[in-house]
Specification:
Helices cover 32% and strands 32% of the residues. Helix 1 (2-14) packs antiparallel against helix 3 (55-67). The N and C termini lie far apart (59 Å). The protein has seven helices and eight strands, in the order H-E-E-H-H-H-E-E-H-E-E-E-E-H-H. The radius of gyration is 22 Å and the shape is elongated. The longest helix is centred in the middle third of the chain and has 14 residues, at 128-141. By secondary structure, it is α+β, with helices and mostly antiparallel strands. InterPro entries: Cyclase_SnoaL-like, NTF2-like_dom_sf.
């Protein structure tokens, strides 16, 4: 699997600006770890064929075949139903925010014109790039994880109740790193676009409690 992942990384790097694939998923059979399945999504069959004809794809394919015990089997699938379940999207979103290393692109979860309403900001955050910048600010200030307690969904909306546990490691709203362990509870309301992506978020969280835990209110309390 390590060698296969290396080849896939090489293909992703070498086909930048050329490939037509939009999503790739690799899994192993729980009952037979040597059985590997890869699902690759394309906008159309024609785009898939165009991708297959790339010289980089052909080279990587030959190297992948060399790793296999037998010739891979190919299946062309037409999507007949694609239903993104709200609870799964919400949980995947919170999990993506805590991903170690570089923040994931999030374009599979958030609409390009997503609106984020957070009372900690004087103005709404509009657009995927700006939302990513805001999430990076939080990630730069804290090592954190969300515990999603409840998700309720109806129609094009879902609401999540969560607990946030973090370590203050970087500057946050002018507060220098304290190394303190902090906790915050809150709720987020999501609105989904027709394609199932998150189009709008409303955040409600215990900002006062967070600032108190960071020591920002010590002078006022004295």
């Amino acid at each position: 699997m390590d060698e296969m992942n290396r080849l896939m990384d090489d293909w992703v790097q070498q086909t930048k600006g050329k490939r037509t694939a939009t999503h790739a998923l690799v899994g192993t059979d729980r009952s037979d770890a040597s059985h590997v399945v890869e699902v690759v999504e394309f906008p159309s069959y024609e785009e898939a064929m165009r991708n297959s004809n790339l010289p980089e794809t052909d080279r990587i394919f030959r190297e992948l075949v060399a790793l296999c015990d037998e010739m891979p089997t190919f299946v062309d699938l037409d999507v007949v139903r694609d239903e993104r379940l709200a609870e799964g999207i919400v949980r995947a979103f919170f999990e993506a925010l805590r991903t170690p290393g570089e923040l994931p692109p999030l374009n599979d979860l958030l609409d390009e014109d997503v609106h984020s309403h957070d009372p900690i900001n004087p103005q709404d955050t509009i657009g995927l790039d700006n939302a990513r910048a805001e999430f990076r600010m939080w990630r730069g200030a804290f090592d954190f994880a969300f515990s999603v307690e409840d998700v309720l969904a109806q129609g094009d909306r879902a609401c999540a109740r969560w607990t946030w546990n973090a370590t203050h490691k970087g500057d946050f709203l002018g507060i220098a790193p304290t190394g303190r362990q902090v906790t915050m509870t809150g709720m987020t309301l999501f609105r989904f676009a027709a394609d199932g992506k998150i189009a709008e978020l409303w955040w409600q969280h215990d900002q006062l409690g967070l600032m108190q835990q960071l020591g920002a209110l010590d002078a006022l309390e004295q």
